[in-house]
Amino acid sequence: MHAWPASEVPALPGKGRDLQIHDTATQGTITLAPGPVARIYVCGITPYDATHIGHAATYNAFDLVQRVWLDTKRQVLYVQNVTDVDDPLLERALRDNKDWTELAESETALFREDMTALRMLPPQHYIGAVEAIPGIVPLVERLRDAGAAYELDGDVYFSVESDPNFGKVSNLDAEAMRLLSAERGGDPDRAGKKNPLDPMLWMAARPGEPSWDGASLGRGRPGWHIECVAIALDHLGMTFDIQGGGSDLAFPHHEMGASHAQVLTGEFPMAKAYVHAGMVALHGEKMSKSKGNLVFVSALRRAGVDPAAIRLALLSHHYRADWEWTDDVLAEAVARLERWRAAVSRPDGIAADALVEEVREALANDLDAPAALAAVDRWVELQIATDGDDESAPGLVSRTVDALLGVAL
Questions:
Q1: Which of 60, 76, 117, 164 has its CA 20 to 30 A from that of 192?
Q2: Domain check: are 252 and 320 in the same one?
Q3: Alpha helix locations (H) across 237-347?
């Protein structure tokens, strides 16, 4: 599966700072100092509907991570999956009387268009669950053969008790886990499971649903968590720098994935930092496909909204914050974009060397994008109110905003 084209990232003078970021597992801020190649895995979409603002906010956060690392003169190895076979996709295809593969392909294509428009840097490896199946099957077999998985009516489940470190990603108690498991795709009430929290690794073929050859597992399809584990281990190995996604993925998805990988490899932890973006609400409720309270990136673009303004709207909120999308949020972003473009359109201006360092410092401090925007706002106000004589300043500001914030002026 191919990703989307990369926009050029301008080089800035000097060098950026190492990233300090909030780690869900430790509930504290840690400093990441990767080697020459920084490694990140971000969980991708289940393509049964278009990209909404909540998705865009999550991918914007991890785009900032990449930009901070690139500014430290590191390379970035970024991997993202597409869950192109799963219950929600099959249910939507059935509801709309569409072929599930065509639905997945069309929505993934739209996602690529949205990411391109928003200038999100693409992953080097963009892998669909279906194409990952040949690598998933052996992992499930290994877990079963090691006694870390068991069969139940043809399905194969992972035993969470096989991992002594289970629970160290989300730090939730058993009751909270059980409630979230029921809400987020698990089946804690299924009879015959050894532990209600045990997640499915391999689902035996169901009538009328797609299935693949699972060797000794029989025909079926993979569970959600093992999909990402197989892709991450294949392309990043263990103890990569960041496992990322929305805050609703901390449990069960990232918790279960970590346990799968840790049992498979005997190593701990799967990732050095578990980083989670906040949820975006609309009309007082979290934006979600199940509720239908969505603002689509593609719809905003069709309505003539500049993608740079959409990105500025996302950047105006800290990535870990839960916030609400409103018309005012977008209007403020549109006005900010106009001010910034007017300021950098002048032939000369106020020296901007200090601004570059302010933006770097803000982003290195747990991706504090609102502080970075405020720093640019201050420069813009001075630029508009004062006659400067630095001919290089407008260009430097444009390159800084592009390189570090992903906004093309």
A1: 164
A2: no
A3: 255-265, 297-302, 307-315, 327-344
DSSP conformation class of 248: G
Q: Are 69 and 188 in contact (CB under 8 A)?
A: no
Q: Is the dihedral of CA 248, 295, 408, 329 positive or negative?
A: negative
Beta strands in 159-212 (DSSP E): 200-204
For residue 342, the tally of other CB atoms under 10 A from its CB is 13
d(CA 11, CA 279): 32
Q: How far apart are CA 232 and CA 210, in angstroms?
A: 24
Q: Which string of DSSP letters, residue by residue, matches 62-80?
A: HHHHHHHHHHTT-EEEEEE
pLDDT digits over 36-77, tens only? 999 999 999 999 988 999 999 999 999 999 999 999 999 999
Q: Domain for residue 294, yes or no? A: no
CATH number at residue 314: 1.20.120.640
Whether residue 310 sits in one domain with residue 282:
no
Asked if omega into 252 is within 30° of 0 (cis), the reply is yes
CATH of the domain at 124: 3.40.50.620
**Final residue of a structural domain among 235, 256, 286:** 286
Question: Is the bond into 188 cis (omega within 30 degrees of 0)?
Answer: no
- Which residues form the domain of 278? 19-286
What is the tally of structural domains in the chain?
Answer: 2
Which of 224, 252, 286 is where one domain is finished?
286
Asked if residue 368 is part of any domain, the answer here is: yes
Contact 251, 141 (CB under 8 A): no
Q: Is residue 55 part of a domain?
A: yes
Angstrom distances, CA of residue 247 to CA of 148, 207, 253, 355 = 27, 34, 10, 31
pLDDT in tens, 79-124: 999 999 999 999 999 999 999 999 999 999 999 999 999 999 999 9
* Residue 304, phi-psi category: left (phi > 0), alpha (psi -120 to 50), beta (remainder): left
What is the reported pTM? 0.96
